[in-house]
Write a structure and sequence with these properties.
single chain, alpha/beta, five-stranded parallel sheet, 5 strands, globular
Length: 407
């Protein structure tokens, strides 16, 4: 049974939550307290899976509470449920929260958010891995792109178009900006699937504050002598995103699916960054083992960690509230036949794009190329499309090379 802690200084609101969430009493053990101080006492006495806190409270406010929770109990999922707060308080809460839900909040949305986070958590069977991923504030960025975004944000002539273009090329920045815009931090509504859309919705002043004041992005640490190659991962991810988008277009998918295919392709190996940044020596050893034994890196990860980088990335992106089709594509991109469904989705585009870009580059990020899941394509009745997709992959690669040559 999941253990949930709800924190709000308004007793009437807590009473309303108790009533609306009563149907969940057989799945959730729920504790309700009226202050941050009470919350910390409860946390010290029993383990909890999720904390849902108001933001504006006398004494210890929600931002202070959740920052304390993150420091003391990094494995706990942290959700804000609050009315409109001032920007300063929002900025203080960003690092410590996974999602921000706005009051009034439908009970179904709250239930769905909590259940989704808990379901994704079950994929990570390793407790230390759960603590590591749940405690993360950022996915570190490619160093040159991090330097670019800092320069552009500091520039007196900074433009949203340029900032959006930089962010859309980076795994960590894209994931973080989509987390912020798809939660209610800034009072925005609707699902956003690309970095460019997110930046335009947030506006220049907010984006500059997030980059320069709140420091929502960070750069990947220097790894001299490491087997993990950040540049290679970035190149493979951008190529996979571009090809996934092209495949979705070729299948005449809706615009939303095309956008999600690109973003999921860019983010599909985000879990590698998480592991390489947090357990670098151990991950280096896994890369070496995969290379020496001639087996896929994800197989070594599963043996060593009980979970693959695909699951690690999907868990974090799901915690951050990214759209289900993106999270699904990241989670199952090696073995899409493990996922239910028999129609073309971003997962289809990302799986095929990942394999084909590795064929073209003749190298895999982990040493051993991925293979097409023919069981999956047969289920979708799309195996015959593979020849056309291979031709498309060659066209996309040649176009990218021409653009690189001509600047």
């Amino acid at each position: 049974m999941k253990q949930l802690l709800f924190v709000d200084d308004e007793s009437k609101l807590l009473d309303g939550l108790k009533r609306s969430l009563r149907p969940m009493r057989h799945e959730w053990n729920m504790t309700f307290v009226t202050s941050g101080e009470e919350a910390l006492k409860a946390l010290a006495q029993a383990p909890f899976d999720v904390v849902v806190s108001d933001m504006r409270m006398p004494g210890m406010d929600g931002a202070q509470l959740l920052n304390e929770v993150q420091q003391r109990y990094p494995q706990i999922v942290r959700i804000v449920l609050s009315g409109q707060s001032d920007r300063e308080m929002i900025y203080q809460s960003i690092a410590a929260t996974h999602q921000y839900l706005a009051k009034p909040c439908e009970s179904e949305l709250l239930k769905a958010t909590v259940m989704r986070a808990c379901a994704l958590r079950e994929l990570l069977g390793n407790d230390s891995l759960q603590r590591l991923v749940t405690g993360m504030q950022q996915i570190p960025s490619q160093p040159t792109l991090y330097a670019e975004i800092r320069r552009e944000a500091e520039s007196k002539t900074a433009s949203l178009k340029t900032i959006g273009a930089i962010i859309s090329k980076d795994i960590g920045m894209t994931a973080k900006i989509l987390q912020l815009v798809n939660s209610a931090y800034f009072g925005l509504h609707g699902r956003v699937s690309t970095a460019e859309q997110a930046v335009n919705l947030l506006g220049l002043d907010t984006v500059q504050a997030l980059v320069l004041t709140v420091h929502v992005f960070s750069q990947f640490p220097s790894t001299h002598g490491s087997r993990f190659n950040m540049g290679r991962l970035w190149e493979a991810s951008t190529k996979t995103g571009a090809l996934a988008r092209a495949i979705a277009k070729a299948e005449q998918a809706p615009a939303l699916v095309i956008d999600q295919a690109y973003t999921a392709g860019l983010l599909h190996d985000a879990g590698m960054l998480v592991l390489a940044a947090n357990v670098p020596e151990r991950y280096d050893a896994m890369i070496e083992t995969a290379h020496d034994l001639g087996i896929p890196l994800w197989e070594v990860e599963r043996q060593e960690l009980g979970a693959t980088h695909a699951v690690v990335g999907a868990y974090l992106l799901g915690l951050w509230g990214l759209a289900d089709p993106i999270v699904e594509a990241v989670a199952f991109h090696h073995h899409p036949s493990d996922c239910v469904g028999n129609t073309f989705t971003p997962l289809t585009a990302v799986h095929v794009a990942n394999v084909l870009q590795q064929e073209l580059s003749q190298q895999a990020t982990g040493g051993v190329p991925s293979q097409i899941d023919f069981t999956y394509l047969d289920r979708l009745h799309m195996t015959e499309r593979l020849t056309d997709w291979r031709e498309l992959a060659g066209t996309v690669q040649r176009t990218a090379e021409k653009e690189r040559v001509h600047g």
